[in-house]
Amino acid sequence: MTWNYSKSASLYGIDGWASGYFRINEKGNVEVTPYGPDKPKLDLFQLTCDLNDRGITPPILIRLPDVVKSRIDLLSNCFQKAINDYKYPGDYKGVFPIKVNQQNHLIQEIVDFGKARSLGLECGSKPELLVALALMNTQEALIICNGFKDVEYIETALLSQKLGRNTYIVIDRFEELNMVIDASKKLKIRPKIGFRAKLNAQGSGKWVESSGAKSKFGLTPSEIVKGINILKKEDLLSSLELFHFHIGSQITSIQAIKSSLKEAVRYYTEFYSLGANLKYLDVGGGLGVDYDGSGGGTDNSTNYDEQEYANDVVSIVQSACEEKNVPFPSIVTEAGRSLVAHSSILIFNVVGENRVAKPNFSLDVTEKDSRLVRELYDIYNYLNTENINECYNDLLEKKRDTMNMFSYGVLSLEQRAKAEDLYWAISTKMVQVAKQTEDTEDLIWDLEKELSDTYYCNFSIFQSLPDCWALDQIFPVMPIHRHNENPNRRAILVDMTCDSDGKLDKFLDPEAGGTQDYLEVHELKEGEPYYLGVFLTGAYQETLGDLHNLFGDTNAVHISICENGSGSGYKIEGVVEGDSVEEVLSYVEYNKPELIKKIREASEKSIADGILTNQEAKLLMNYYQQALSGYTYLEDPDE
Q1: HSE, side-chain direction, 13 A CA sphere, residue 158
Q2: Cα–Cα nearest to 258, from 270, 247, 272, 267
Q3: Between the CA of residue 158 and those of 168, 198, 217, 466, what are the distances in Å?
């Protein structure tokens, strides 16, 4: 049966992880559908071609404000539905943690789109507080101050109340309480205070160790009691209005969320018995994203959705408050990853390949060749379904012999080359034979992993996908076009850095579940670009990226989807040009004029020595200065 886009959708599992924001269209291209398949949409391949024509070249980070708005609306609607269904007397207020993605365009979009929902901001440092104070002007929205605090941080937060900002200082460490009290007295401003508890309950997933009784932030029960007594003594107990906890990022299991909530609401009700009168219960972040579409069971997925999360939060808080007959708080969440992960896509081009499989093998082997080569040639010729396991074991033995004999000087380089060619030819043939043989799944898996091609890709993992490198995070990766063609090649993806860790070699396996060691890709076509996309990259990746090999920020484009007379269209809301070589070098304290001066001096010396002609010197200086102004990634020489 002919390959089509429906088969590609199944192969890459897009319906599982896309949450309705992406799909493959009938042209075989991936498109963005932030408001559903029947609403305005955006063809990513066509967009990439259009941007190329404008001189905005890959790698490109595509940012999608429409998806941000959709996610804000989704979470707010889920909580409103839960509040209505359970007849919860309180309300809901979300805040977005700036640390998840501090980019100016995004934070401004969060604030603008969140106005109708009273969405606030959470800041974990002084710089983030300064951003929040400048951008947050929504009347009822909260600004939550977490993280390590000095006097300047605290005084700035207090003074912001004079600007009409609804700023809460959360006591993460016991020492901060006296600092807040002293600053309050100095400025004569009554503080708005929150206490963060160090729960015993832990989260689940990659960040499980960041929570629990030994977590970095939070007050112990003893410190909470002491803190309340201090506030009573200072006549500031009424300033304590918020209770907060956090059990980590990307919580994969709803059971972990429910367990922590049950412990936290006990704290909340006990505050009343100690005389406090809280207004807000901040349940922190951790609302996860289903990166692999499996619906649970891995660190890259969740076994719940946004509505189940909202239902559990509301019902557990309501039950505890009813049981203890205490006022119902406004529920605050600090969901960050869930709001923005879907809103960014990294698109890059494949610039070359290395293929080890040898489907059409031809090699002359004679008696002059080494015994090892002749034995490998025999394996190739006599391999069949009857002897495949024996041949596989022999092949592994011959591979070891090849390395050892070459190392000891017994095998020449020419003979080693023939042996390796035969090894890959046998492996290629063995996969085909194994697929006709029963009980060879493990053998096929091992061989296909080893036979995977290498596709050289124009991006840096360290800059654009640091979680892949540091945390083994799995992001959905797939071509953004050609989905009506069978992707009959398998490859790992390597980036442009000179680092062996600069590769993607773990990918989603939607059909079998879990992960696989290769990505299904298409044959490269001479003279035609081949684009791959990494999806759900909107959380954490941009700011955490580094300058390994001095590859800088990629080009970034903000795209709004709109309708025009001819159907669906888009509008470029903003372009953030990627770092030039000059900019990246300045980050590590290199000065452009000084670099040019040194090259010019070296050129003049070479001219004087008769090594370099005047024309060559001119050409070199032009190339050098153009390179300083250019993109840090590979560029098409025709551009």
Answers
A1: 22
A2: 247
A3: 9, 25, 21, 36
Count how many residues are written for the chain.
639
| CA dist., res. 181 & res. 231, Å (int) | 9
Residues 80 and 92 sit within 8 Å (Cβ to Cβ)? yes
Per DSSP, the residues of 536-549 read: S--SSHHHH---GG
Distance CA 283, CA 271 (A): 16
* Predicted confidence band of residue 201 (pLDDT cuts 50, 70, 90): low
Among 421, 450, 479, the domain-final residue is 450
Concatenating the DSSP letter of every residue in 231-286 gives HHHTT-GGGEEEEE----SSB--HHHHHHHHHHHHHHHHHHHHTT----EEE--S-
Give the mean pLDDT of 126-139.
93
Q: What contacts 360, CB < 8 A, 6 or more positions away? A: none
| Domain tally, the chain | 3
In angstroms, rounded to a whole number, what is the distance separating the alpha carbons of residues 263 and 86? 21
Q: What is the mean pLDDT of the chain?
A: 91
CA distance 91 to 493: 47
Greatest C-alpha distance within the chain = 98
Q: What is the pTM of this model?
A: 0.90
Contact 431, 395 (CB under 8 A): no
Residue 191 and residue 290 share a domain: yes
Question: CATH no. for residue 300?
Answer: 3.20.20.10
Could you give the CA distance from residue 404 to residue 401 in angstroms, rounded to a whole number? 5
> If pLDDT is split at 50, 70 and 90, which confidence band does 565 have?
very low
